[in-house]
């Protein structure tokens, strides 16, 4: 929590961005800065039997010009995926704050619609990432709107939210792609469970609802216990392996990614790339003390 709060400070951002970061630390979680880097990572992962969701890094844009740049970055990426014939194995993940949500919800909706249209042309799909708790209602409204024209748009539910189970029940319908994650942002006690145990219990309740429903669950976690529980619930609900998928982040538990894929499960790796790595990188550090220690050692040049 403290690290997530510090991450919002401009001073901390300057220190972290200007620090003589060992490239290895950032590169552990981020596929690179260019579309070329992202394509190489995608081709490698697809070659290993994995699927991919690509995130062009950037969030919280404050003007229309930046939002337009995000749209152009995504459409250029989708053109590349189409040209490489990777549309059936690689989709994109989009943050609405990167296309103007903080300025105007309708602007974000229109921009997201343009990206969904480009994804359709590339024979692939878009999942809308879920961000800070203040954006949840707006993002779910945009998902509902987009699904009128693009029913395959993926939604994300964060299990740490007290309303997560209710949201899962609403979204567990035929054709509905739903990513379930624990939640990576700081949120107050009135809105979100705070203890690891409560978040994990909520994750299990949500998995039960999604697996019992008729939608397409996407279980996004590295937690070995939750991955096992999801597998058991799939069996209990007579789900075949094509009716759900596991999702893990690029650079985290890569052996587990391959192990699951080797057991005929569908596994998608979330691949983030681009120059705007700060927010994403800080959330990964906050998730695990070992990552923070690794980072601090690299700052000290050790
Ligand atoms: P947890 O943090 O409890 O970790 C369980 C185990 O996984 C750890 O013991 C460790 O072994 C390993 N592990 C976890 N994180 C690690 C790390 N950073 N480095 C190394 N090992 C690590 N969040 C959100 O708010 N909105 C979103 O849209 C998304 N989208 C998303 C997509 C995908 C594909 C994933 C996997 C995750 C997200 N998240 C997210 C992030 C999510 O909310 C959560 O913060 C992280 O996945 C960490 O939680 P775990 O479920 O992995 O469990």
TrEMBL record:
Q: Which GO terms describe its biological process?
A: L-proline catabolic process to L-glutamate
Proline dehydrogenase domain sequence ranges = 38-294
Name a GO molecular-function annotation. nucleotide binding
InterPro entries reported in the protein's UniProt record: FAD-linked_oxidoreductase-like, PRODH_bac_arc, Proline_DH_dom, Proline_oxidase
The region annotated as signal peptide is none
Q: Which residues bind FAD?
A: 130, 158, 182-184, 221-222
Cofactor comment: Binds 1 FAD per subunit.
Task: State the top-level EC class.
Answer: oxidoreductase
- Asked whether the UniProt record includes Translocase among its keywords, one would answer no
- One Pfam entry for this protein is Pro_dh
Q: Which SUPFAM superfamilies match?
A: FAD-linked oxidoreductase (SSF51730)
Reaction it catalyzes: L-proline + a quinone = (S)-1-pyrroline-5-carboxylate + a quinol + H(+)
Name the needed cofactors.
Answer: FAD
Q: Which residues bind substrate?
A: 95, 283-284
Pathway given for this chain reads: Amino-acid degradation; L-proline degradation into L-glutamate; L-glutamate from L-proline: step 1/2
* Entry keyword Oxidoreductase: yes
Identify the keywords attached in UniProt to this record, alphabetized: FAD, Flavoprotein, Nucleotide-binding, Oxidoreductase, Proline metabolism
EC numbers listed for it are: 1.5.5.2
Descriptive protein name: proline dehydrogenase
Q: Which gene encodes it?
A: fadM
